[in-house]
Amino acid sequence: MEQIYRLEQIHKHFGDNHVLRGIDLDIRRGENLVILGGSGSGKSVMLKLLVGLLTADKGKIYFDGNDITQLPEKGYYPIRTRVSYLFQGGALFDSMNVYQNLAYPLKAHTDMSSQDILAQVKDALKKVGLEEIEHLFPGSLSGGMMKRVALARAIINQPELILYDEPTTGLDPLTTHTINELIRKMQKDLQISSVIVTHDMPTVYRCADRLAFLDEGCMVFIGTIEQARQSTHPKLRAYFQGDDRV
C-alpha cells in the first residue's frame, strides 16, 4: 500500500524531557491508523511534527516520498492543503459563526466566489449531519456539534488525510459513536485516510485498520487489533483486559 508519510528514527526533546525516542512509522494511503497511548506518551507531538507545527530534533520525515524534516514554514503550506488537522478542542474561532469558520480556509487559499463558498460550506455540514446552522456561533454549540463542525472544516478543502487529535475526548458514549461513524464515513465516501490519536477503546475498535501503540516515547507495537490483543506488552495488554469482543 502506498505511503503518504514515513517517519525514520524521529526524536523530539522539550528541555530534558525526551518525548519521542526514535520513532519509525509509515502512514498508508487509504487506511485509518489509530495511535494508542497514555497521556504524555508523545501522541499529539507526533501529529504536530507531520504538519510542521513542531520540528524534529533528529531523524527524517517523508511526505509523498519527499524529505520534509527541515522545511521552512512556507514549505508546509502545500502540505496543509492536502492534510487537515482536527485539534482536540476543535479550534473554532469564537468570534466567527459556523459559516465564517468553514469559509475561512476557502477564502484564504482559493479564488472561489461567495456563492460557491456558501454551497461548499453547506455541503460540508451536510456530510457531517448538520444543516441550517451556518448562523450559529461556537459558544451555542454542544461539544458533539463543535466536533462535527470542526470535522466539516477539516474536509472542506477535500484533503487526502486527516489528523485527529483525541476526537472523542470529553464526549458521551452516543456522541463518541457518532464521531467514530463519521470518521469511517469520511474514509469510505470521500477516500480520506486518517491518523487518529486516542486512548479511547471504542474509537480503536470502530476506526482502526492498523493500531500503533506509543509508550514512553517509543513505538512498541504496530499491527492489527487482533495482533494487539495477543501482544505480551503489559501496558498494551491492559487496554484489552476484560475484552470479550469476538
Any idea what the CATH architecture is? 3-Layer(aba) Sandwich
Residues in helices, as a percent range: 25-40%
How many strand segments? 10
Distance between the termini: 27 Å
Task: Name the average pLDDT.
Answer: 90
The level 1 CATH classification is Alpha Beta
| Order of H and E elements | EEEHEEHEHHHEHEHEEHH
Strand order of the largest sheet: 6-7-8-3-9-10
Rg, Cα atoms, Å? 18 Å
Quote the beta fraction: 25-35%
Total DSSP helices: 9
Form type: globular
Quick overview of this protein structure:
The chain is an alpha/beta fold and 246 residues long.
Describe the structure.
This protein is of the alpha/beta class. It has a single domain, classed as P-loop containing nucleotide triphosphate hydrolases (Rossmann fold, 3-Layer(aba) Sandwich). Helices cover 37% and strands 26% of the residues. The strands form two sheets. It has a six-stranded mixed beta sheet with strand order 6-7-8-3-9-10, sandwiched between helices. The chain is globular. It starts with a strand and ends in a 6-residue tail after the last helix. The mean pLDDT is 90.
Please outline the helices and strands.
Layout: E1 3-14, E2 17-28, E3 32-36, H1 43-50, E4 58-63, E5 66-67, H2 77-82, E6 83-86, H3 98-109, H4 114-127, H5 143-155, E7 161-165, H6 173-190, E8 193-198, H7 201-207, E9 210-215, E10 218-223, H8 225-229, H9 234-240
Parallel strand pairs: 3-8, 3-9, 6-7, 7-8
Antiparallel strand pairs: 1-2, 1-4, 4-5, 9-10
